[in-house]
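INFO worker-7 received task bundle
INFO bundle size: 2
INFO processing item 0
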Amino acid sequence: MTIMKSKLIYIAIMVGLFSCTDQFEEINQNPNNPVKVEPEFLLTTSLRETQNLYGGNMNGVVFYNYTHYFSGFQGEFQRYTYSVSSTNDYWRNNYVRCLMPVHQIVKLYEEDPSYKNRVIIAKIWKAYIFSNIVSVWGGVPMSAALEGTPGVAYEKEQDIYTALLDQLKELAEAIDLTGDTYKANADKIYGGDLMKWKKFAQTLRLRLAMRISAADPEKAKKIALEISRNATGIISSKAETAAMNWGITSDSWSYLYNRVVYNYTANKATIPVLCESLVYHTLPYNDARLPVYGQPAKQGPSIGKYFGQNISYGGGGGYTTRTNPHSLLKQDDYSYIGERFLQPDAEYVFLSYAEACFLKAEAALKGWWKDTNAQNYYYEGIDASYDHYGLSADQATAYKETPGIKWGTETDSTGRFYEFQDWMGICSSYIKANDFNRQIIMQHWLAMPNQGVDAWALIRRTRILEFQPQFATYDGEYAYIPDRIPYPGSEYSTNPLEVEKAVSWLGGPDGLFTKLWFGLPNVKNPNLPH
């Protein structure tokens, strides 16, 4: 048996047996015969597991319909309820599959100065994963997690953000550019480039600062201004985008390829397709990214056109006099997801150059950036997004001149106002003159399709974009985009005192629609009764 195969089996056994708040024994179980796994293998494992979770099942099942990019995978989450077994799995996978490998790098190598940078990068990646976890659940175990102790303490959501913001600053500054690094084939994101990891940490810090900007504007402003004093210290080029590709073999290819292409026949009734919301935010503006994000319908009433499914599967007809174009349609009657995302070795983006630009634009608009010219960063973000998807500078220029997209201009909807609306006519992508914040947030959202966890956080912290509620809930009512995922049942069984304490911090029940600290309340649609 090869060394690598032994390690794979060992990690698989560890992942399968233990959870974060149950007893997870250290890898060095026998002090007389320690098993010390190489940090390169552990990092690769964590990166791949994180990609598979946030770019895979959790993305398709939970985030697609929460973010209005794609639609499909009918089930509880899609109808704005939830699956207890899935919440258990998502929690466990975050802590065990994603976090535990990098946690072990810290445990095993922190005292060895020859591994200094590799330990720092492991800590940066831990911070990234926790930034996702806290955005999904709220207060969670962080400092005391993964040590194998029962009754592990939860921490408040706002305290976690404070800790992550402090940690990321310290970690970015601590990287020694002349020191050790991961082998290129182990670091699947940056190939061992230390400067890019420094920039990733600071850009993630900016993302988190802007995420809490509604809840704690004073702290957010302070951090954004601090970062702006060294603007070259964040992601500033396409080459610095944090992304990772799946593989071309059956054990490594992408979730979408496996479900939509390879296993199409088995999944035909529930394959994900383009969402209607994405279409009315792109098509009427002649956005050249639409053919990248989706494909023209191959059959049905809109064959040859970009036709998105509404997340309610045609529900909501009782609130409009318009004819329902979704009645009795199948998944194949809609636009498929773009071919770029259906490749076996497709990429998953964790943090992009385009997003860094829009974060700067938003901060500048608020007066929280050293250079307050938000317009320049806004246009830079559009250019970066177009370039990322292989579109030309001329296409980007034409798009930037479109009314509603051009900085400060109003959407030109003369004679075609309905094109900017959902089929019911209750939501619109229309932009008023000088609505700069809506322009920035709309472009930020448009720049990161398939980054479900990030887009969901953006939507909840801004509440600017107009998306149709879910009308196909099991009780027959409609519901707005959920605010969080409930804590898993496994935590109530193994760590009841701490999870109940965390629930008390929420200010509401442990449910989908209890607002998290960082987010804003749902904006009620004025065209619906409440």
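INFO item 0 finished
INFO processing item 1
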Amino acid sequence: MRLNGKRKTRIAIALATSLVATQSVSSEIKSEKTDSVDESGIERVVVTSRKRSEALVDTPIAVSSFSDKKLTDMGAHKMGDFLQSSPGVALVDSGDFQQLSVRGVSTSLGGNANGYYLNNIPFTGVTVPWNPNVQSFDLQRVEVLRGPQGTLFGEGAMGGTVRILTNQADPVEFYGKIDGQFSSTDDGNDNDSLRGMVNLPILEDVAALRVVAIEENQGGWIDIENGKENYNEIDTSTYRVQLKITPTERLSLDFAFWKSDQNIGGSSRARDDMTVLSSDGQSEMGYEQYSFTGEYEFDTLAFSYAYGKNELYNDLSTPIPGLGLLTGSIDISVETHELLFRNNDDGKLDWTFGYYYRDGSRNDTLFIVDFLDSISPSTTEAEAVFGEVEYQFSDEWSLAVGARYFEETLEVSEFGIGLTGPIDANHKADFSKVSPRAILSYQANKDWLIYLSGAQGFRGGQAQPAISLQLAEQMGIILPASLDSDTITTYELGSKTTLLDGTLVIEGAAYHSDWKDVPVRFEVLPGAINGIYQSKGLTISGVELAVTARLTPALTMNAGISVMDPEYSADIPNSPVKEGDNPANISEVTGNVSLTYRDSAFSDFDWFGFWSTQYFSERVNTNFATYTEGDDVVLMNARFGIDNSTYGVYLFANNITNEDGALSAREPDLAVRNQPRTFGIEMNLQF
């Protein structure tokens, strides 16, 4: 059911990050569902980041994998709770919007700069950088692919791709789980959540239904000066239904429906004292996804088809100084189809080929009484053919090469009354791109992989908003009517090593990216209307290091660091951006360390503990002259308790040191803030 009301959204970008989640010490993999723990205590991980199952340590690209067990241990409830544990990755959550950054690649306008998938269905290519707020409950795993993934995952996967893979319905047995949480935030309201899952076999070994329901309330902690206290409260409802049918051992059919709604009282932007002068508006946003996936396996060939339909909405309202209340909405509908063929044998040659089709529409409305009444519908149609082939020349050497040919037609209209007169604009553009990738890998021994790769990612072009063109012309500013597509090329040298009988796993990478024709935001009407320039581009060089170590039979450590140097390649005319400036809200240095403890307590219960600390260096935003730098930020969380296969009780503390620094650049006195120190209890039951 669609929520009613006019509400608001704003986009904030920030980067923070570092570290690897779970690594793999596995050899032969038969199924992507075979994650387990070996004698070393380090989790064996299987991924499908190249659209086929393989051990994580044998995959010659930079990947982090977060299993359901790992997410549970971390106490993760949403994507932002754990994605920053992957080197070079951040999902900055300002309450009313999420912004994904991978290796310095992020955007607050145009299509997504990073891929984002729910199971096999992409949210990429919706003409707005919208990453749905997915609750991390009853997930099989989340894969974070770093570096361009345009060859296999299409447009928008320039910095990398996040793949959220759910647990599938199980036709063997009935079971379920319930998780409840209550917590209190310093100088803020209380928080609570209730999450549940039930798995229902319909026909033994043939069909099953899996249902997930989540209700969460995040209390506010920011006060309006001389007004409402703790106004930035967020209520979230999420429901997921999956039907799995396996008529034969070779054929599987999966149907799914996923729905989420958020009622957001305000963003988490505030002054240093956690107050704001006035409300920055409210929003109601959400998404629905309908999907079907079918797969048939022959003896040497596997064929699959995936269909998805995404419906996203955002109703907004925000006050604009001197003009009044701006209300509006964004409504997006995207349908995707993908055919995929891959080999299903164990020879020296592995291959994947596919066809992809997308049909999308977006409709924007903006309204200010006596000033503005604008409607802007747009449509996009795209298709692509792609493939990748890997040949193993010897026991040590392998070479993978692939490419994707993509073409898109974008049509944008805008009509109504602008701030300076009538609007009646139409724009049509065609884009095409070839996105290649090559990976040379060397297996020095069974525990050491080295790889060298070159890969491209891309994004389609975009039209300048007519209202921005109109207003800029009145101000004597020349903006382009449309922008070309932008492309990133990344060269990477990486290594994955397992040492000390599997108790130590080290992953490292060095990379250099050349991101050409990057769109940048230009503030035409401060706080209200933005235009777009196309810069010459960015260069990004970086190194990543991540370590997983079994320190004792009961204690495991994860640690990592990411250092990058992103900078603009040239001055941008009529903009504060100069050659050598950093892009908006990117931390050059991030670090992370965590400890996980598990040991026998009594009977069949275990003692459990988890502690983590993250560091993010200050961020800037040179796109606007009024912005000032953010702060160096250190966040510390802890969780401990007792559990077994049926019951669990945990106490937790988030932001233990009550870090209140600016997570983003200040605009000019407001910035995204972390939720203050929060103490709580969580209980779960499995049946």
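INFO item 1 finished
INFO post-check item 1: Confidence is low (pLDDT under 50) at residues 1-34.
INFO post-check item 1: The longest strand covers residues 421-445.
INFO worker-7 idle
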